[in-house]
Design a protein that fits this description.
heterodimer; A: alpha/beta; 6-stranded mixed β-sheet; 33% helix; globular; B: 890 residues; 3 domains; 21 strands
């Protein structure tokens, strides 16, 4: 479902080149849940962003759902993202000028779904925000905002869901609710889920944990309590 | 289905309408300034031109030396059908006889300048008569009540004095009798003429027919005055009529040519107003640009989110371009409303500020006519084009930007994708163009549109071009300075005071608006201050030319034996020193360097289309009558350009003559040439010893040829005296002179001069009023635009506050930041303004330039003050709110 091969990412900063990702090769099968962990600055978020096609690696290739996205243009990438990827940010990134309902509607509208408002309503009900649909992001609490973001990410039923520290800005109980929500949606839709987190406990609840250190894959383990093995050899 | 971008635009507008309103206001103010200034200046121009038209009595004058023929008559008839108003004025010299009150017989006669008019006269300006009744009323046939005196006549005071008449008496002109029905004080179109042959008598055209004075061969001056509909252009009609009336030997002139001096001023006024309009356009453009830029910056976050969600570029560009353009169009529409309001309200404000009722005097009317459409469409064009330029450029950038870049970096960096800052400007420019030709072409197209708008607004390619050139120079200079400032701050040690440290930090913060603010302030200061500098130069120029110490009277035809007595009389009456008596000898040119000049035609028929301009000019100089004089001293306003003026008491074997520059050029005369002049049949030879430049517009006696003292001894001469007297003594002096010297004619040029001076006064007040208007509007726009850039900084201010900074500290730090920017940009702007005004004065207005340290100082002070106040006010109020409210809303 998701594959990276020899992905390297370098950024120029202050006249120096900083290597953020160094020869990362991973393969994530369909429907797997993966946690990417590692200390700050280890390149977790960058890797997730590259997988979503939000940026382009310095070298290496990335496949999403069988498409080599590193070969795609910006336009094609946007369309691929719309159809295949849901993305949840640590800082929610809702559009401040739109209501909760409208924020969720956007991907559906972009996809040309004529039932967009109705579907968005259902999604908001599903995340327990049926009563706050016409509220603006600033009128919602952090947990509510993130639930809107989750609804938005799932709106187009993407086969891949990427979450960048989805609970990072939330207290533990709110965070727990959001995670439960994500997991429930994952179970219902059979989505491949990759999330970046600092939370060991959350990581442990995933089928697979990839640890990055200094831009390299330090370890890649299947959680023992999850019996299901991936199809491929590691 | 409603397109996504429209839905998006609607949602954004609905939720953030207050914010939208703010941007809308800034754009509206920019456009409003353009519309307001354009409308105001076009109204001012119209008012001043109206005054100037009064000096000719029409827009256009067709002058003939005989009644117009059948063909010409048809041409003139045709004009009426085109909506052109026309009135005929006939002028001739005639004898008027006093009709004895008792017997009704004619006795004493007097030579007068007779002027016959018809209804419609004057087309411009005012004829002041006493009693204050409509002119045609006074001139009409008196009906049954009159047996002998059938038509009315209005005469000059001096006529009454000479013939000992009073209003109500009868006079005889030609075959008809007239009754004096009033006294004429001023006629707008009576030009100062050195050789007025008598007092004015005004009658109707019907009266002239009754008098039966016009016979074939009569010396007559027929003037057809035309008033064009507002929409009609003058020059094409002038050319057309020149062609069609060539068979009539008609001479055409427009009101602009009526007074050469005035023509220059009017041209300068037109150019100046063009410049003022351009300034408003630039300042307004800056206002719109800054506002739109701030708007787009604000939306970048939303754009990045949309991109992450998978929105394609087209959708994003449509959404936000739609919003920006909607904002621009709506803002422009509101701006047009503001402009209309400004031009209705500000004239009063300007009048109050200048403590003058000039606008009322010039019959200023804040009316809207079809001519207002041009300023309105310019305003709209400016708003939309500027909006497009400043929104499309960053939005088109977004196409190639990866969302991560927008999130990760500051906005500033995101706007210049894929271009390494180390690269040279050219390399970078080339890379931007090659990387994205669509964007480059679009921007170039919009830029050209704005340039076209500038040229349109300036009304001239040269002025528009100069302005755009000036803008480019200014932008480059300011950019370089801004970069230097950033480097300088980095090199400086960090200051102690926290507020100052914070301020300097803000200036060099990546993604800051230092460059934009500096360029805006600098360009704004440059154009606005340049207008102030031009205003000074123009007003000074007008002031220098205003006839202040010009004479009130010319007394002409003083005989040599009367000179002494005349001087004594004037001295007695006015207590002044003896009047300035200038000897005059009439002559014609006979030969140059021994070669007899050929007199081809009578002077009235010089306008033959087959002749070249030079030939015409030469003929005019050959054929005209020269009034000679001899003088010890070079007259004031005369300057020797070649040869030398004679020394006092110098004796020459041959008569020496000094020639006016243009005449010398046209006649091919140089220093050393010999001239033969025919003085009433006697040929006199003189040697050209110098060539002079003459300031013709100075309202004193000017001469083409001045002889050395003694050279004209024995020639039949008369004297002309110039006398200055206060208005209330005019009539008494005139009566005394006429009583003592009946042959001497008094010409009151005070009236003409005062109307000319009035035009100049209004001209200079108009120039000042427009400058003031432009300054006020400019300051307002700059303030709003600066405030728009502040909005974004609120967040960081609140964080500082949350961290424990006092409101005063934060406000001080913002004020310090803006004071530094204002100071640096102001200094550059002041320097550029001097440079710019020099270029305009030198190449466009053709006026001398001078350094104005005080004005520049004031300009700089005001700039710093304005930026400081804006920086302070735009944050201080908002800082009063609790940090949490703002933080939540960010």
């Amino acid at each position: 479902m998701i594959a990276t091969q020899h992905v390297t990412m370098q950024l120029a900063a202050g006249g120096q080149t900083v290597t953020i990702l160094d020869d990362v090769t991973i393969d994530i099968p369909e429907k797997q849940t993966v946690a990417i962990i590692g200390p700050s600055g280890s390149g977790k978020s960058t890797l997730l962003g590259l997988i979503a096609g939000l940026d382009r690696p310095t070298s290496g290739t990335i496949w999403l759902n069988g498409v080599e996205i590193t070969a795609l243009g910006e336009q094609a990438m946007a369309r691929l993202r719309l159809a295949n990827v849901g993305y949840i940010f640590q800082s929610f990134h809702l559009i401040p000028t739109l209501t909760a309902l409208e924020n969720v509607s956007i991907p559906l509208e972009l996809a040309g779904d004529s039932q967009a408002p109705k579907r968005a309503e259902e999604l908001l009900h599903a995340v327990g925000l049926g009563h706050r649909m016409s509220h603006y992001p600033v009128q919602l609490s952090g947990g509510e905002q993130q639930r809107v973001a989750v609804a938005r990410a799932f709106a187009c039923r993407p086969p891949i869901l990427l979450a960048d520290e989805p609970t990072g800005n939330l207290d533990s109980s709110t965070g727990q609710q959001v995670i439960e929500l994500i997991m429930a949606l994952h179970r219902d839709a059979g989505t491949t889920l990759v999330l970046v987190t600092h939370d060991q406990h959350l990581a442990a609840s995933m089928e697979r944990v990839i640890t990055l250190r200094d831009g390299r894959v330090a370890s890649d383990q299947l959680a023992s309590r999850h019996p299901r093995m991936p199809d491929q050899e590691l | 289905m409603i397109p996504f971008w429209l839905i998006m635009a609607w949602r954004e507008l609905r939720s953030a309408w207050r914010h939208f309103l703010y941007f809308l206001g800034c754009i509206a103010l920019g456009v409003g300034a353009v519309v307001g200034v354009s409308l105001f200046s076009s109204n001012v121009e119209r008012a001043v031109l109206k005054e100037a038209r009064g000096l000719l009595g029409g827009d256009l004058e067709i002058r003939l030396s005989r009644p117009v023929g059948a063909a010409g008559s048809a041409v003139l008839q045709g004009l009426t059908e085109r909506g052109i108003l026309r009135t005929r004025v006939s002028e001739l010299v005639a004898m008027v006889a006093r009709v004895d009150r008792a017997h009704g017989a004619a006795d004493v006669t007097q030579l007068v300048e007779l002027k016959a008019i018809e209804s419609g006269y004057p087309l411009y300006g005012i004829v002041r008569v006493e009693p204050d009744l409509p002119l045609m009323e006074l001139l009409r046939q008196a009906g049954d009540s009159c047996r002998e005196a059938c038509h009315g006549a209005v005469v000059q005071e001096s006529f009454l004095i000479r013939l000992g008449l009073v209003v109500g008496d009868a006079i005889k002109i030609g075959q008809a009798s007239f009754r004096i029905t009033g006294v004429i004080h001023t006629e707008p179109d009576r030009m100062a003429n050195m050789f007025s042959l008598g007092p004015r008598v005004l009658i109707s055209q019907d009266g002239l027919v009754a008098a039966d004075l016009v016979k074939p061969g009569s010396r007559l001056r027929e003037r057809h005055l035309l008033k064009l509909p507002a929409a009609m252009a003058l020059s094409p009609l002038l050319r057309e009529l020149q062609g069609r009336l060539s068979a009539e030997s008609a001479r055409l002139s427009s009101y602009r040519d009526a007074q050469p001096q005035l023509k220059q001023f009017l041209d300068q006024l037109a150019r100046y107003l063009g410049l003022v309009g351009l300034t408003a356009l630039f300042v307004g453009g800056i206002g719109v640009a800054l506002s739109i830029q701030a708007f787009v910056r604000e939306k970048l976050q939303s754009i990045a989110i949309l991109k992450t969600l998978g929105a394609d570029t087209k959708t994003i560009i449509y959404s936000y371009l739609g919003q920006a353009v909607g904002l621009g169009v709506l803002g422009s529409a509101v701006g047009i409303g503001i402009g209309l309001l400004l031009q209705a309200v500000l004239p009063q404000a300007v009048s109050t500020l200048l403590a003058t009722d000039v606008l009322q005097q010039v019959e200023f009317t804040a009316v809207l006519s079809w001519t207002a459409l041009a300023p309105l469409s310019k305003g709209l064009g400016l708003g939309v084009l500027t909006t497009l330029l400043f929104s499309l450029w960053p939005l088109l950038t977004i196409r190639t930007i990866k969302p991560a870049v927008i999130f990760r970096r500051e906005v500033e960096g995101a706007i210049r994708p894929g271009v390494r800052p180390e690269a040279s400007v050219w390399r970078r420019a080339i890379r931007v163009v090659t990387a994205d030709p669509v964007r480059a072409v679009t921007a170039a197209g919009i830029g050209l549109g704005l340039a076209g708008l500038s040229v349109w607004q300036a009304g001239s390619l040269t002025i528009g071009g100069l302005f755009i050139g000036g803008l480019l120079v200014a932008v480059v200079a300011l950019t370089v300075t801004a970069k230097a400032l950033l480097l300088g701050i980095r090199a400086l040690p960090s200051p102690r005071a926290l507020s100052l440290r914070q301020a300097l930090g803000n200036i060099q913060r990546p993604g800051g608006q230092t460059l934009g603010v500096m360029v805006s302030i600098g360009v704004g200061v440059m154009v606005i201050l340049a207008i102030a500098l031009l205003e000074q130069a123009l007003v000074r120029q007008v002031g220098e030319n205003r006839p202040n110490d010009s004479p009130t009277f010319f007394f002409v035809d003083i005989q040599p034996d009367q000179a002494e007595g005349f001087s004594a009389l004037i001295h007695r009456r006015t207590g002044d020193v003896a009047p300035d008596l200038t000897p005059l000898v009439r002559s014609r040119l006979h030969a140059i360097n021994g070669q007899a000049v050929t007199v081809e035609r009578e002077s009235e028929q010089e306008d033959q289309p087959s002749q070249s301009k030079e030939e015409k000019r030469k003929n005019w100089y050959v054929n005209r009558e020269y009034v000679l004089t001899f003088l010890d001293q070079l007259p004031k306003d005369n300057r020797i350009v070649k040869g030398v003026w004679w020394k006092q008491g110098q004796v020459f074997p041959r008569a020496q003559v000094s020639i006016e520059e243009e005449a010398a050029k046209s006649l091919g005369i140089d220093v050393g040439s010999s001239l033969d002049l025919n003085i009433q049949g006697t040929i006199m030879r003189a040697e050209v010893s110098s060539i002079r430049k003459v300031e013709w517009g100075n309202f004193s006696t000017n001469f083409y040829m001045i002889f050395s003292p003694g050279a004209l001894d024995g020639a039949p001469m008369t004297y002309v005296a110039t006398v200055r007297v206060s208005p209330q003594d005019e009539v008494a002096l005139q009566s005394a002179v006429v009583a003592a010297f009946p042959n001497v004619t008094a010409i009151n040029i005070g009236e003409v001069l005062s109307s000319f001076a009035r035009v100049l006064d209004r001209l200079s007040l108009a120039i000042r009023a427009v400058a003031l208007f432009c300054l006020l509007a400019g300051a307002l726009v700059m303030a709003a635009a600066l405030a728009a850039t502040r909005y974004r900084r609120l967040y960081e201010a609140v964080i500082l506050k949350a961290l424990g900074a006092t409101r005063a500290l934060i406000a001080r730090s913002f004020a310090a930041e803006y004071a530094v920017l204002g100071c640096v940009a102001g200094v550059i702007g002041v320097f550029l303004a001097s440079l710019f005004s020099w270029a305009i004065l030198r190449y466009i207005l053709e006026l001398p330039w001078s350094l104005e340290p005080s004005l520049l100082g004031i300009g700089l002070g005001c700039t710093v003050l304005l930026t400081l106040v804006v920086g302070f006010l735009s944050t201080y109020r908002l800082l009063g709110q609790p940090p949490l409210t703002v933080l939540r809303h960010e």
